[in-house]
Amino acid sequence: xxxxxxxxxxxxxxxxxxxxxxxxxxxxxxxxxxxxxxxxxxxxxxxxxxxxxxxxxxxxxxxxxxxxxxxxxxxxxxxxxxxxxxxxxxxxxxxxxxx
Amino acid sequence: xxxxxxxxxxxxxxxxxxxxxxxxxxxxxxxxxxxxxxxxxxxxxxxxxxxxxxxxxxxxxxxxxxxxxxxxxxxxxxxxxxxxxxxxxxxxxxxxxxxxxxxxxxxxxxxxxxxxxxxxxxxxxxxxxxxxxxxxxxxxxxxxxxxxxx
Lengths: 99, 150
What we know:
The structure holds two protein chains of two kinds.
Chain A: H1 2-7, E1 12-15, E2 22-24, E3 29-31, E4 33-37, E5 43-52, H2 56-73, E6 80-91
Parallel strand pairs in A: 5-6
Antiparallel strand pairs in A: 1-5, 2-3, 4-5
Chain B: H1 11-16, E1 25-26, E2 29-33, H2 35-47, E3 52-55, H3 58-69, E4 80-84, E5 88-98, H4 103-122, E6 125-137
Parallel strand pairs in B: 5-6
Antiparallel strand pairs in B: 1-2, 3-5, 4-5
């Protein structure tokens, strides 16, 4: 859900494909997302992304807002802890519109 | 560059602990930018300046040509070395300038554009941009001489 929400933000090109930045679920592997359970029953979410060459601080804020909105819509707002955004790479000429 | 080395503690942990670690850290989560991003932005910004023919010294360009051919590296990363801290970055560039261009003007424009782009895109403060002009590009110099015999 967090990754899907992030990918709808214009300027996000995609997740990194590295195995160390992926979360394995019972069904599949989610690339670019690391989720850590906190001791207050919330989950710390880190998104490892490739972005277009745009102001990254503003982009991270938009991603965070979108993830919070998606979690709220799914009834998971109380479980969502900090949303960390890690820009691993940028791609020139890829100011892709969100999905 | 006099700066504290990057903390091993994650940004969100530090924010929770009330420490000041980065302007990119916030209550709702931290933003981290990989060194590769700063390197690539510096390379793109350098290429944007008129009079810059290429990035990298002779050996770096030769190796870069091979690694780019097999998709192992980007053209924008060769000739760029960055040191990135929590708030600041320092950049070293090696460039080839077109013959006839003013080297001081090109170096100054490269410096200004790299600072503007890195600060605008990453929010990091650029403390220094060191530019080394490794060579001059003379048009036609790299073209092979025509064979004298068939």
